[in-house]
């Protein structure tokens, strides 16, 4: 016979622990120096994706008509058009022009095209990167800048980028891709400047630290306060809707007190994750919301398994006290809960070790949520159901006692 662990004996102590942890999380939210470290998704302002890549060459054009450039992963196209000239398209494929030197010589063959090379002539054409700051229309006084990034480039630390941008105020940085790609998403809070003014300030600050011409802007957008507010409201709505659906499902399948215990457990789990996110200063973004929703769905699975076992145990031992039914159900499902959680944690641990940036934060939040999920199932959901049933039994006994006292003796 499987050993029955008296979990109910620890309900008072674990309730105190849970209250302390939740209070710490709430205190962190309202603390002036803490609060959420809001990511790039929840703050209105400039959204800029940059890549640290040296300048390969600059192009200018003062020939007849207008010249536009299209840089893709496999070629550079120069399209010349205008009222006084016939439209002509020049294509320079990287398969034919394998190095920057060959590409520059080919481009110089176009009348009015000027190329100022900044990198060695033998760099590969496939390493070239376009900056979003450069207008696709070539002009004589506004160079079109082309950058390059060789494979295996020395990574740039996200900490160095954050430190460099620290004087600009509330600026958040998120690493994209692998460290060798040296790509970052930068978010500058709305401070009254124009979007172009914010972008210039960010790039100038980075170039002063990492070198002139070393920063390529691969994307630049401006997110308004209305969009950021809508995204925050949608995230909150998703969490509330998830809780309501779980409440409705558990009420239908079990009893209302069971449903309330399940919802309380996953709310507790979410608050523990929020506490971890706040006190570790992890960036709070859509990836974090996804981690919380993932754990909410995972946690309810454990709770329902235990509730099902309690239902079955109550049918097998109808005369047994409720506390014994609860301890038996939790004990019999404990090995299943631990095994499924540990196997999931192994996969998430590999994700944490071998990734970086927002994916690493996602894995860290999942690890905390998985551990908290086991705790919440046993010591929050079951604690609430036990408390509810105990109070209901006390009320029933009290009514029975009053009824017995009012019954006249024969």
Can you tell me about this structure?
The structure is a single chain. This protein has helices at 11-30, 100-108, 158-165, 195-210, 225-253, 256-279, 286-316, 322-354, 358-406; strands spanning 37-38, 45-52, 55-61, 66-71, 75-81, 88-93, 113-117, 128-130, 137-138, 144-148, 171-176, 183-189, 215-223, 283-284. It has 410 residues and is of the alpha+beta class. The protein has 2 domains: 7-39 and 227-406, Up-down Bundle (Multidrug efflux transporter AcrB transmembrane fold), CATH 1.20.1640; 45-223, no CATH class. The strands form 4 sheets. It has a 4-stranded antiparallel β-sheet with strand order 11-12-2-13. It has a 4-stranded antiparallel β-sheet with strand order 7-3-10-8, covered by helices on one side. Helix 8 (322-354) packs antiparallel against helix 9 (358-406). The two termini are 49 Å apart. The mean pLDDT is 81.
